[in-house]
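re: ur msg from earlier - yeah i can do the glutamic acid complex, just paste it... oh wait u already did. ok heres what im feeding in:
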Amino acid sequence: MNTEKKVRVRFAPSPTGGLHMGGVRTALFNYLFAKKHGGDFILRIEDTDQNRYVKGAEEYIIESLKWCGIEPNEGVGFGDGPHAPYRQSERKKTGIYEKYAQKLIEAGGAYYAFDTEEELEEMRKRLEVARVVSPQYNHITRMNMRNSLTLSYDEVQKLLDSGVPYVVRLKVPRNEEIRFYDIIRGWIVVNSSTIDDKVLLKSDGMPTYHLAHIVDDIEMQITHVIRGEEWLPSAPAHVLTYKFLGLEQNMPQLAHLPLILKPDGKGKLSKRDTSGLPMFPLNWYDERTGESYVGYKESGFFPEAFINMLALLGWNPGNNQEILSKQELIQLFSLEKVHKAGAKFDPEKTKWFNQQYLRKKDKYELADLLQPILKENNIQAEKNYVAEVCELMKEKAYFVKDIWDMGSYMFVDPDTYDEKVIQKKWNTESQKIIIELLQYLDKTEPFSAEHIHHTFEQFIQQKHKIDYQLLRTCITGVSSGPSLAHIMAVLGKEKVKDRILKVLERVKV
Ligand code: GLU
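and the outut:
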């Protein structure tokens, strides 16, 4: 590659369904690479396969990239740029794909094929009878078919003029070595005899992915193609196409990302194997199947945590750092450090990432995030108070909603009490101790965690030892949680006294 060239990469999804987390990772790696090199990141929509087009998928892709904070600088939904349009169905109307197909035919790298569905089916059957393992339209079989390699020039012209449907196929040579370099996998060598004569232009005039992405990568001056491993088997055919166009030297550099595997490492991650975590960044409703999927966003994940987790699926910075901000990811990212082997998805680790980001958040920011949940539960509380509760609860929380789930007693008086604790520990003796302790607490001034601690110590020295679990249960209704003295300090003296008195009244022995 000419090192002078500005780095330009593209994310080129097909709108055939919800963009899942594997797709987001591909977009992320493209984004990080572009930003690292001061380059451009482009979103191109590859919608040439109209049969597989799913309504809403394109908007979903755009919304997902926005939520993740990995926004392209050019492309559909992000303000078109100098290479508009960025949707292949619209690019088709400019005649660009036919032009390239024509160039390939003229260069002897492609040919017309007039075979009907029935003729293709017959060929497949013939090959099956002959026990050919994977029947293909290739350098051998094409010589028995109806195409511009077997028909005379005049016959071909006649068929073209009469409007008989045809496709254009890549003319893959026999027994040639195709060599190409993949930044992640190194040199790859494939014998051309194993490759089929891929269709480049379909009979409806639409290009296939194989032709369209090459044309667009050339026209959009793409320097690096970073995509999923599933495209590696077609790469040799793509290399040949560049060669036939005389553009082998200008071909973008290739990098095929490793698969994301199921948590047990056995096979590719699928919607059914995420161990309860989402597969999609945002809620996704599949109109064809009527199935709904919950997204990472709606499950309470922070986008920073989600992309941090994704970045480490198949890559790491080479030190042990795991929590990496977007800026750090950009700084440290390199394709050379991406692994070849599949990366196991780890649901627990994914939650851990969210926990780490939650802990790093300022208590006032958390208070704002908790606000909608409080509202849903008809709780009105001062922002300062909510912030203190968040500070108290955040150590154990994975998600903002956990703060409410674990700490709703900071907002509403408990009306149930851990039965086991009460049954076992509530008796005349423990009641007496609590009444005495209440007097000590009443005199604690200021009612801070530090002073409450001090009161406890005094009480133990002068009176009796304290059953903290019982005391906690009286105040919060539950038998575990963050530091009791801190809980009491945040609740305030009056609330603590009220709650203890309420229990003394309600739970008489
Ligand atoms: N449209 C292809 C896809 O859906 C893009 C592959 C590529 O990046 O070349 O994954």
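cool cool. The CA atoms of residues 434 and 471 lie 8 Å apart. ping me if u need the other ligands too
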